[in-house]
Amino acid sequence: MTTTASTPRPTGTTAGDAAATTPRSAAPRLRSRRAHSVDKPRRNVLLTVLTAIVLLYALVPLAWLVISSSKTQADLLSTFGFAPGSSFALFENIANTLAYNDGIFLRWLANTLLYVVLGAGGATLLAILGGYGLAKFTFPGKKAIFAVVIGAVAVPGTALAVPQFLMFSQMGLTNTPWSVIIPSLISPFGLYLMWTFATQAVPTELMEAARMDGASEARTFAQVALPLLAPGTVTVLLFTTVATWNNYFLPLIMLKDPQWYPLTIGLNAWNAQASTVGGQAIFDLVITGSLLTIIPLIAAFLLLQRYWQSGLTAGSVKE
Amino acid sequence: MTQAVVPVSPAGQTTELKNPRRGDRAKPARAPRSWRGWGFVGPFMLVFALVFIAPIAYSLYISVFRTQLVGGTQFVGLDNYTRAFGDPQFWDGVGRVSLFLVIQVPIMLGIAMLVALAIDSGRLYGKDFFRIAVFMPYAVPAVVAALMWGFMYGPRFGLVGYINDFMGWSIPNPLGPQWILLAIGNIVTWSFVGYNMLIFYSSLRTIPTSLYEAAALDGAKEHHVIRHIKMPAIQGSIAVALIFSIIGSFQLFNEPSILQKLAPNSITTYFTPNLYTYNLSFSGQQYNYAAAVAIIMGVFTMVIAYVVQLRGTRKDA
Fold it and tell me: What is the DSSP string of B94-157?
């Protein structure tokens, strides 16, 4: 340990690399590489700057959205996108967005929350159960399930949505929350993620020990497996939440009544209003509403970082 | 010599400590073969049958009929399919998404790969910030992404108009018919670069440190490590990202559908096959023909995804 710490030679790596062929000369070089390369490599300014281009690409439109949310509609049309407007109208815009059309935005927010809680929550529950079952049991038909579920992922949204719509309309479910919630209950990606996660996170020995103690399968699952599956659960919940929160196609075809719209369809309707005859252009509300729509998800991703990232890096040996 | 060994050993020990756990994982589940697993998988499969299998079966069923105002519904066999194969509007959409696929997907995955490698190399200042910030657009709904970029593209209060005025340039209107596909490609790239980066990055994190140490012992440089350790190790996740991107391209719908309001002259009703089936169904009431078109696209997508998967797994030697 002391040898590593006492040889801070950060610049010694590049020049000697190629020439170092004999073990004797390799030894000191290795030490300096150990100190900087494998665990904690040297920071690189050029690489940071190059990667920052992609970072800017990712963040600049979001910056535009924040800046634009603080402008009045007149300023939106007359000032440069990244320059502030003549007045700071963010709070005014938020108040207008929430109040417009008898507070329909809040209704859409409540709808979205309903779809997320029941749709994404249910999808996560089904994925946990299914992933655990696939990971820890062998049963007849298991291979067929894998093939069918993976194949289903490739089916285009419309191939499903059109017959789903026709079936649901025969059942009298279109234009009700169920038409959005029920299809959201299936997340093949969530199932796949829980499957790989459960394979690694739940030791079979532990399950056997629980069974030896006389625990039922349900109890083994609830008390032994479920706590171990927590990081994977957060990951799946977050991704199904995004899928439900951001869903556009499904509610677009299933819902006619604006009272049941989620935020995405509502915003699109507000935007379309400008191009309809006699419709009032409300770009300021579309932009502020967009900002309000993305804030909860971004906040969730930031706050739950450690959980979902550890869920995704399941089985990582490196950390 | 002994000095050289000392710094290596702590890392060697940690990998050894972790080995038993890996060994456990490698063993197959020893649960006896029985129907018990169905108790857990059953609920998923039940809903899956209702919202996936039944609609597909129903789709297949209605695709062999034709409904007319006069004469009602009649069985027409494969007529709808032959009609689709001779439909120039369908092929126009297929051509467009194929073009989109061969240009946008490599660019998006290439950028995602470079960023993932840069973050994984540990040579960035503030790599945690990079990782989360590049991923952030994924949390933005397609509706918001398309509206936001659409406004920025737009000549009315968009950035492009401003830059043209200010710099005296004449950047063509991104929402014009010639550039609209590129404009959509940019929105999709923006939305999913971070997501794919995270897939690659997660996969890179699973490479054991001991491999890098062994490479360092052999005097391997960074590009050797990338080529011979990192890339082979993440082959699987590249195939997964590629398949999802292919599916996404063939299903292109949200962005053109939303931009249609901002660029009505550039986006036709058959701009993509998905948009075409949507308009056939909900504007034209031609559910039977729409089902046939959707099934052809579904089969097409599955075949290509399958071929990519085969090639992807065969490539690693």
Answer: HHHHHHHHHHHHHHHHHHHHHHHHHHHTT-STTHHHHHHHHHGGGGS-HHHHHHHHHHHH-TTT
B269 interfaces chain A, CB cutoff of 8 Å: no
Q: Which residues in chain B have their CB less than 8 angstroms from residue A36's CB? A: none
- Averaged pLDDT, B71-96: 89
Mean pLDDT along residues A193-197: 85
Q: Is the ipTM above a cut-off of 0.85? A: no
- Tell whether A248 is within 8 A of chain B (Cβ): yes
Residue A192 above 90 pLDDT?
A: no
d(CA A285, CA A290): 8
Tell me which residue of A128, A315, A121 sits closest to A221, measured CA to CA.
Answer: A128
Please indicate whether residue B16 or residue B222 has the higher confidence score (pLDDT): B222
Question: In order of start, what are the domains of chain B with their CATH numbers?
Answer: 78-315 (1.10.3720.10)
A145, A286, A317 ranked by CB distance to B45: nearest: A145
Q: Per-residue pLDDT tens for A259-286?
A: 999 999 999 999 888 777 677 778 889 9
Domains and CATH numbers, chain A: 2-38 (no CATH), 45-78 (no CATH), 92-312 (1.10.3720.10)
Say whether A154 and B305 touch across the interface (CB within 8 A). Answer: yes
Name the residue in chain A with its Cα closest to that of B220: A17
Instruction: Give the integer Cα–Cα distance in Å for A46 and A52.
Output: 10
> What is the structure's pLDDT at B27?
44
Q: Cβ contacts (< 8 Å) between B132 and chain A: which residues?
A: 301-302, 305
**Each residue of B226-266: pLDDT tens digit?**
888 888 888 888 888 888 888 889 889 999 999 888 888 88
Rounded to an integer, what distance in angstroms lies between the CA atom of residue A176 and that of residue A22? Answer: 75
Residue A311 is predicted with a pLDDT of 65
